[in-house]
Design goal:
The chain is mostly beta strands and 450 residues long. Helix content is 4%, strand content 39%. The strands form 8 sheets. Strands 5-6-7-8-32 form a 5-stranded mixed β-sheet, with no helix packed on it. A 5-stranded mixed β-sheet has the order 21-22-23-24-28, with no helix packed on it. Strands 1-2-3-4 form a 4-stranded antiparallel β-sheet, with no helix packed on it. A hairpin with a 4-residue loop joins strand 15 and strand 16.
Length: 450
């Protein structure tokens, strides 16, 4: 997420980037003066777990609740630095042939997206597994990586002119399918927690579609609006895949409810309502495609009216203190927490607003909205269970060489995961980071070049 100077002037604490971690228990933000990592497990309090003064950071990504964090700065936009922030040490750094536009992580893979290429690393030893060269021009670095390492799918645009999406298996290193998702180029894409659903929106921003993975079949279609085209900046499923939120450059965030596909009806005696339904369905098949599609599109289940509009933001759904919440981090340097009624929907209520930069006192809640009746703070629980850590300890042996095609044709597969009730807390010493350097082995401090 890029901040806009017009959002508050050149001296305003605007964000250069903001991202939630894989289970929405942590928020990473960066601006001109440095970056910060926050714990997002309480509505009333926003704990800063780490702060760095590295300037002009425009990418910062944290791996679950571990100490592994990936940082890219505007001073060296072609270099990716991987840090153990609790120890304050650099694990490794990689340099690429062009500017890094985005980075995605899960417990199996680290993906680096450039404008016309994608690099896939094994996160356990940072070995480069595959380089996807000559991908369609992707100036925004749009891509998504499933957080489920058993279904470690990668999605990126398959065309610069129409809305095609390539789904790539980052475990087995092969292309799975191509989805003709939209007529215009894709603007946003995301996977659900299990890697079985993919949501996308085009540059027009009027329709959001959900597809099955790996088949690529269209399952659901939602209409955000009809009056104007918008720039959708963020899409996010709830971890149980029951809801999907979408934010844009307008003042409204939309939350859609994903209805289950009903089973085929059993043959019963015909009724008047069934007869009318069949006639309506048959008639829609004779209508123009655009009209027929609109008749089958669902509208928003719930909405949020932001205090400002015209700014880029990132949204996410999480359960905090046993209640479903919508989180919105905006480029003006604020995090807003809203309550979501999962049964009635409607207008979401602002629970708390936090400032993300400034002193601890200045970062207090900006206003006191309606009292929160949630249960006392406790260990965070997400909408649904997320992956647990593997007991295996990765090797820290010396890294092998690299080749242009990415070397290994198939990466090491972590055994099938178990499910845990809470967020993943990785073993920093034994699992992440698995290596203490990623250099050339001579101690000269020369970084790898991909």
């Amino acid at each position: 997420m890029e901040s806009k100077e017009e959002a508050g002037g050149p001296d305003a604490p605007g964000l250069c980037c903001a991202s939630f971690n894989q289970d929405t228990t942590s928020l990473a933000v960066g601006n001109k003066t440095g970056y910060r990592l926050f714990s997002v497990t309480s509505v009333d309090k926003l704990d800063c777990v780490y702060e760095s003064e590295s300037p002009d950071v425009y990418i910062v990504e944290r791996l679950f609740s571990s100490s592994l964090v990936v940082v890219v700065s505007q001073a060296t936009p072609r270099r990716m630095n991987v840090y153990h922030f609790k120890k304050g040490t650099e694990i490794c750094n990689y340099s690429y042939s062009n500017n890094i536009l985005s980075v995605r992580l899960n417990r199996q893979r680290l993906v680096v997206c450039l404008e016309e290429s994608v690099y896939i690393h094994n996160i356990k030893d940072m070995k480069l597994l595959k380089t996807l060269l000559s991908t369609p021009p992707n100036p925004s670095g749009l891509c998504a990586l499933s957080i489920n390492h058993s279904n470690s799918y990668l999605a990126y645009p398959g065309s610069a002119t129409i809305g095609e999406i390539i789904v790539y298996d980052a475990n087995n290193l092969n292309t799975v399918t191509m989805i003709p998702a939209h007529d215009s180029p894709v603007a946003a894409v995301t996977f659900n927690a299990s890697g079985t659903r993919l949501a996308s929106a085009s540059e027009r921003g009027t329709v959001i579609r959900v597809f099955s993975i790996p088949e690529g079949h269209r399952l659901l279609e939602f209409r955000r609006g009809m009056k104007r085209y918008v720039n959708i900046s963020s899409l996010s499923f709830s971890p149980d895949s029951q809801f999907l939120c979408a934010s844009s450059n307008t003042e409204t965030v939309h939350i859609f409810k994903l209805r289950a596909t009903p089973p085929p009806p059993q043959e019963t005696s015909p009724t008047w309502s069934a007869y009318v339904g069949k006639v309506f369905s048959a008639a829609s098949s004779y209508l123009p495609a655009q009209v027929s599609d609109m008749m089958n599109q669902d509208r928003a289940f719930a909405t949020v009216r932001l205090h400002v509009f015209g700014q880029r933001n990132v949204c996410a759904l999480a359960t905090i203190q046993k209640l479903p919440r919508l989180l919105v981090a905006s480029s003006d340097g604020q995090l807003c927490v809203y309550n979501l009624d999962p049964h009635e929907g409607g207008e979401c209520v602002l629970a708390k607003r936090h400032r993300l930069f400034g002193s601890d006192k200045e970062r207090g809640a900006l206003e006191e909205p309606q009292p929160d009746t949630a249960a006392p703070a406790q260990s965070c629980q997400s909408y649904a269970a997320t992956v647990a850590t593997s007991g295996a300890t990765p090797s820290s042996a010396t890294l092998t060489g690299y080749s242009e095609d990415g070397g290994a044709m198939k990466g090491e597969i972590i055994p099938e995961h178990e499910f845990a009730a809470g967020p993943v807390c990785l073993d920093d010493e034994n699992e992440f980071p698995p290596i203490n350097w990623c250099r050339d082995g001579t101690g000269t401090g020369k970084g790898r070049r991909a």
